[in-house]
Amino acid sequence: MAERPAVLIAGAGIAGLTMALALARHGFRARIYEREPLLREVGAGLQLSPNATRILDRLGVLDVLAPRAVRPLAVELRNAATLERVARVPLGAVAERRWGAPYLVAHRADLQAALISLVRRQRGIELVTGTAVEDAELTEDGVRARITRGWISEQADAPLLIAADGVWSRLRRTASAAAGSRFTGHLAWRTTLPRDKAGEALAVADTVTAFMHPRFHLIAYPVSGGRELNLVAFTRGEATRQAMRQDWAQEASDAPLRDAMAETALLPLIDTVPSWTVWPIHAAHPGAPWIHGDRVALIGDAAHAVPPFAAQGAAMAIEDAATLAALLARHRDNMPVALSAYQRIRKPRMAQVARRGRFNRFVWHAGGPVALARDLILRKRDETALMADFDWLYGFDAEAELDG
Ligand SMILES: Cc1cc2nc3c(=O)[nH]c(=O)nc-3n(C[C@H](O)[C@H](O)[C@H](O)COP(=O)(O)OP(=O)(O)OC[C@H]3O[C@@H](n4cnc5c(N)ncnc54)[C@H](O)[C@@H]3O)c2cc1C
Question: Does the global pTM surpass 0.85?
């Protein structure tokens, strides 16, 4: 019997690579087109919550990633002005028992490398780099993608195209004419430091620490097997030309960050940081469709980029991939049913995560009496009650949910 044609995937980020592995697990072949000629090791750290790690485990990714990942013992919320601890949510073994999978932190490049090594070992997956998917049109029985490699332009036919081309997705336009992304007014400042060079207050032993302040928040956690500390700070920012460049690695003057941190206990601590990169936070239009003509599906940031205030963008991309692959396997000969179920199931979940991110931003950036009330309420709640707040998010099993 002739082999089924491969599903096309645009983009070899976390979404596209996980998608290919999830499809292979269900017996589908996949071809990934990645625009970049070399898969650069960009970005900094990632928190990987149990709703994502249970899927990565099933795909064999955790075994490869484990030596480079760290299992933090807790998430702590601290007041950035005084460094005082306001709340502690236990992680480690207790979190793994509660949510059925580990909470990990890792360098983004380590996750990317683990995914790529598995993709390269899978016979049913082809990874083509230096090749961009420009656009796509529906055909009678599938989709035709226009792909370019340098000056060469070609066409590729497939039963399905999965757009995993990130926050600035070109293919989003295929699904909806009015579907760009917008600058949210927030900038992310990122760096990694050798752990022993970071001040003690920043390198709080094996925790994810969120320092809260009305003008900014800063998240710190260990990566690279614990040898480095990942720092990411969020401030309001102008949509300057530099800030709008689509580049993970642009160095920037840290003056706006220093202004935001003025008169806080964190300012002297960031003197140990030699340089920061800045990343403008863009968001996708929440009302835009994620599928087009039963033959194109958007996943990851291409579908639903939001500001990362719940640290869930990569986790949602991983959940998308698991759900979509499982639905395609269930409805092998009825792609329209699989795609519309994907959109129907995933959109409410993503909306809930986006709400949680907006809530975090409000709470973490509170000032005056609101901040006092926040601290009072958080200090009163015991650790088990704080963990219970995350059951809906971290206890979620995207695949088991399809049976429920
Ligand atoms: C500061 C910051 C901190 C974050 N922290 C967390 C966290 O702790 N936990 C978490 O879960 N999430 C976090 N996120 C969110 C997370 O990084 C993203 O949601 C996730 O990386 C999205 O993955 P993706 O594969 O959808 O997109 P991307 O990683 O952007 O990948 C898209 C890929 O597509 C390629 N591409 C683009 N256009 C084309 C084309 N036309 N043809 C072919 N290829 C193309 C690109 O080169 C790229 O390789 C954070 C985000 C930021 C900005």
Answer: yes
